[in-house]
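Handout, section B. The chain below has 508 residues.
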Amino acid sequence: MVHKKGFRLALIVSVCSVLSLTMAAPGTFAAKGDASKKVGIASSSQIKKAADNFLKKHATKYQLKKNLSDLKYVTTIRTKAASYVRYQETINNHPVFTKQVTVTVSPQGKAKLVVSDYTPYNEVVAIKSKLSAKAVQSKALQRIGAKEKDQSAPATQNYGYTIQDGKAIPVVRVVSHTSKPYGAWETYVHAENGKVLTKKNLNQEATGTGKVFQPNPLESYGATSSFSDNRDRDSTALNNQLKTVSLLGLNGTGYLKGSYVTISSKANTYSSTNTFNYTRAKNSFEDVMVYYHIDTMQRYIQSLGFNNINNRSITANVNTISDDNSYYDPSNKKLTFGSGGVDDAEDAGIITHEYGHSIQDNQVPGFGNSSQGGAMGEGFGDFLGATYEDATSSSSYGKACVGEWDATSYSSSNPPCLRRLDNNKVYPADWEGEVHADGEIWSQALYDMASTFGRDTATKIVLQSHWSLTPNASFSDGYKGMLAADASLYGSAHKDKITAIFAARGIK
């Protein structure tokens, strides 16, 4: 199977209510039978008990109640290297949105790491009555700047709390889908007076790029060139960069639907013989790009030993919007690739970057709620895209660079880059408060790990570390998660080098 490279700026995964989500089950081990033999010595019940006991013993350190009465157990993810017990902070059995605690436990049942978003409070604001669902939605739409007729899908509402200035405030979390303004919007509405406390666009957009190229025409060519998008027109030079690949896992219907990808597109691509040979002048070309590169990435993840990370057929909307951006929507678990500029789905790096957000949301629902968490999300997407590109290119052109093909329309550098993973940014001196720029701090640390340990080892450590984190995890939490993952997978064989790599980025 031939690989393709490319990268484009992608979106941030936003917060989701843990209590309204179900963790992906594929690949997890059962709590009985011979599952414990596959994972380690401790059983599922022993793992949970170890996490409970550790939190009770260290309740003061993490500002928890000693009996853990306001922590609701959510799930235990079991892997051969370690297990991850996740809890949700609650008040009156309702979630405190985005506030979670995760305990990493060794196969022998020893707690190794706690990452906590738990937030204590001094007062629970009392309310006499709750607004109706209709009134709540009206307040949410008003804050978004939309009208009822602008809704493109039914809204969802969940009751819970948010903590501000030591007060636990009763709120309704609303996710609205609107066509004007476009996107999926999250609002927290005061449950009694209707005041909108926060508003967030879950579809954090990114500049577009596109699509099979292996991984993009610049990298496969191996040098700077005069390639031009020219409004999707074919050219001999670009056609010469097309590679023939195998499309695995198709369901046999003639459409690009398979084990790990379901294409929903403007082209509605179909072939009775499952032969999908197109040039970029046809919209179906982007459909093939997205199917192939996502399918290839998921198979790579499983080849590393993970069969419970985003193991599903993800819906990818291709060329369904004319904007020059792409995004992952955590509220419906779908990817969308725009057709503005160089079509985003023509660049494998961008496709892979967007898939990275879906991966993190699957491992930690709501990941990236904090500013550093958002930067970690963007940095992980860049790392995934850049290392995928490197693995599918025989040349050194474009190393530590993402989005070469997409960037031809706005970058004068050689190679043209959307972002780089070797700018030597350091936290906090180079912190800008913009997730994509700040993501370059995190992405370089991950990319340096791949350069030092190899792509496979680095990716295994990074993916394993995600389970230790929470929606509001910080750079420091992420770094500690790396050390815990290395300890679980490799007996801390890479500890010193990981420490040095992150220290060079100002993270400890």
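Note. Residues 1-40, 206-211 have pLDDT under 50 and may be disordered. Compare this with the example in section A.
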